[in-house]
Fold this sequence. Notes:
Layout: H1 2-6, H2 15-22, H3 37-72, H4 76-103, H5 105-133, H6 139-158, H7 170-175, H8 185-192, E1 195-200, E2 205-207, E3 215-221, E4 224-230, E5 233-240, E6 245-246, H9 248-253, E7 260-263, E8 267-273, H10 274-283, H11 285-304
Antiparallel strand pairs: 1-8, 2-7, 3-6, 3-8, 4-5, 4-7
Helix pairs in contact: 2-4, 3-4, 4-5, 5-6, 10-11
Amino acid sequence: MEHALDVYPNLYPRPSLQKLLRTRPFMMKLRKVPVIGRKAEQLAFKRLTTDYEVARGFARAQIHIMGYVRRLSPARELTRELRDEIILNKRETLMGIAQLGAEYPRMISGIETRVAKRILLNQERISIASLVESGVLDTTEAEKMIEDVEQRMQQLDKAHIVQKIIKPTPFYALHQVKWLADVPESLIDRAAQHVTETTYTAGDIIMREGERGHALIMVSEGLVQVIRTRKGVEDIFDLLGPGNVVGAVTFLMDREAAATIRAETPIRAFKLDHEHFQALLEEEPELRSIIEATMKEYRRSQREE
């Protein structure tokens, strides 16, 4: 399959993806031409959307590939070699996406808005199914609501969204946290009130191995290294970028950090302090119940591994 997709049956490099990230839509050159400019912009947006989603999908796939390598590799040295190639893939892809954002900020903002709206629509669909399972919502009514969601999804896919640049918000950042997926939006909104935006320069230590984490960090711009030190030697274990959450296990379970998190590039992130989150758990039993279930599931998965 690797050979069919990209000529070379290896993890890195991926020539087709590298070419995709380097090539810019020809229609970009025609955006300001009278008469055809509007159509050219729409076609360019469509092409950029495809490139962006391919790159994002590839970056996410590296996370799963990393998991397979750790479980299936027969030798530690081979694991390290393959892991380094996966990190190179992630670095090139995430930096390529960042470069697209720097060159076409308005278009990429529009694409990211589309992705965000799609995520929210998918969550709405999941919530409807959950209400049916719990007996709160009638099946017939649920079908109408899901049909409405599907129609909005189709309209979103057809829409040409090129708009003013929208900065990420704490509310959207919290929606990217997997273990908050089942939390009602009203509680997400309450938690978002305690989220602050912060920045780090390249080389800054965001979290240090062996220390307790005092905040949940949600990366919105830039790349961070996940580093483990063995016998005094630093080993870059992983690379994380926009949309990734740093320190979730340490934050939830009050554990010492298993790795150091260091900014590889300038970082913009959202931060939720542990103190504020604990206070919210005390005030909201429903949120506490969801988090406790998440922690229980995490411990179970760790025992199985």
